[in-house]
């Protein structure tokens, strides 16, 4: 499936598209080989990217930034129905929730150390509470 809407653009070459998104041209070629991009070709066989392709690259980048791999992105962007989308994104969302919870706990520990008036951080109330919770006994 080639890009049909060039939004009035003559079409960007691979170098121009790559530069627009701060990518190396080989990244776009790799995405094409994986079936993520389907650029049109000019009379000389050179890739030409239109408005739909720009949207597609932006979509790929957003999904990558969300932590999804290229195979997952391909599954999501090739007409996945609602059930498939939920099956793919559900575990990814749960993994992200776990990562966020771990980051919050780390931040709480670090901020507790920053806000503690004791010389020895192990004497700080926040630190002692977290250790007690980890050990599972009361001191």
UniProtKB/TrEMBL annotation:
InterPro entries: DNA-bd_dom_put_sf, MerR-type_HTH_dom, MerR_fam
Keywords on record: DNA-binding, Repressor, Transcription, Transcription regulation
Domain of life: Bacteria
SMART domains associated with the record: HTH_MERR
Segments forming domain HTH merR-type: 11-79
Protein name stated in the entry: MerR family transcriptional regulator
Native source species: Streptomyces tendae
